[in-house]
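Fold this complex.
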Amino acid sequence: GAVVSQHPSRVICKSGTSVKIECRSLDFQATTMFWYRQFPKQSLMLMATSNEGSKATYEQGVEKDKFLINHASLTLSTLTVTSAHPEDSSFYICSAEVGGNYGYTFGSGTRLTVV
Amino acid sequence: EDQVTQSPEALRLQEGESSSLNCSYTVSGLRGLFWYRQDPGKGPEFLFTLYSAGEEKEKERLKATLTKKESFLHITAPKPEDSATYLCAVVSGGYNKLIFGAGTRLAVHP
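Structure:
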């Protein structure tokens, strides 16, 4: 139980275009979801926290106009990287708060490459 | 400021050679400490949650322990398939977000 499905797993886009990443909770309702960014051989950096039906809370230094987060339902949160540039290339991972002993469950990640 | 420090940064073991990974934390009111395993190109996979000092949890060759300042992940007789990055994270105070350490990259050789 408590599975989070993230798509796509890999995406290559041209500089200046936008890319949308989806994160779905398959067998539970996720009131709160989190979006992380991970650079090679580094740990996860929290970008923002999204709550269903309200605006996302962004961490310091994260551009909210570049990384648009929408959490319109209890099972779906999306991250849109707008006007992507090569420096936005990274591994993006979503997570949902499950509660209890499992705490938080993670998606499988999206490798974004901007060329 | 809440902080999580993991050591060592990387660890190389021979198959069957037991060892421990360390996670030191400084938080204002620990609500939970989590251990995850992450394989290359994948999202973190849940291993354990610990809530209070003295608590221990086991799963196959892994055992996690918690004190007021640190947590250990003990690996007994590791196998090559245990090779991965092990991440420690905490949730503190009135927040519900995970604060991650930098991770320990474990390589187990046959």
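The interface with chain B takes residues 4, 6, 32, 34, 41-44, 46, 49, 91, 93, 95, 97, 101-109, 111 of chain A (CB under 8 Å).
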